[in-house]
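With this grant's support, we have settled on a layout for protein records. A representative record follows, to show the layout.
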Amino acid sequence: MGHCESFGLAVIGCGRWGINHVRTAHGLFNERLMLVSDSNRAAEEKVKAISPTIKFTPNAEDVLSDAMINTAIVATPAETHYELTKVLLEHGKNVLVEKPITLHREEAKDLIALADRKNLKLMVGHLLLYHPAVLKMKDLIDEGRIGQLQYIYSNRLNFGTVRTEENILWSFAPHDISVIQFLTHSKPLHVAAYGATFLQDNIEDATITYLVYPGNIHAHIFVSWLHPFKEQRLVVIGDKGMIMFEDSAPAEKLRFYPKCFNNNHGVIEKLDGKYEPIEFEDRQPLAEEQLHFAACVTENRKPLTDGRHALEVLEILEDAERSLKERD
């Protein structure tokens, strides 16, 4: 990291995912992780188990008043993201907030404008964009390995954990929307979503979202927590080849398939080659995300998953949610 600006970090929220942020930040930044906060006092025990030297407070206001802290990670429930991020930015703190940035696009726009006005970094935890396999996939597409991009599909399926405060679309799909935005470089022209509700009233357990992009690029995202086994699979299809990233696979998670169709004077010919595994660096996405955030703060870089990227993801989520409810 450079030395343009100091880096004093706080983590707010020590729930299921927040505690991973604490553990990773302690390993990367040590004493520069200056404070960890959670309104639930019981979280202190989990934090002290990582290291007894980490300072803990149940009062998030302690983060605001500490001049040595110029950077905060927000890993609290989604409905708190807007107010908490806003007050942190108002107090001059750079913020990495977990996805989704907010629950409403107007709130996200407000945070982006505030960060711009105060010349602060606003970054959102769209974790898969820091996964070495996704970055490798992007390189292969940009190099023309699969030719013209045609179709992307994603399955993100599991048995549980069922949420009571959000449906499967908001819980699982932001990951895949973020990646598809990253790979297509464009906004969808059309968004439609279909869902099914079985376990709780008005909370969809499975959804399929269909996206149409400029250049005749199509995509669909299938998410469900009513599935017998875990599957995290992303397939990208071009007119010269195909790539599959299966994060749930035990080995060969990234594969290139030299498969395509040629139109030979009106006759469709199938080319079907054996897949080849693609190597990628073995780096932890969460550590990569935090290191990127630190570099953005200290070296004045633009975050890969900045507020504007997160706003696009949120707009697609809101459009998909609207489409779902129209069919209820």
About this structure: The mean pLDDT is 95. The longest strand covers residues 226-238. Residues 307-326 form the longest helix (20 residues). The two ends are 51 Å apart (CA to CA).
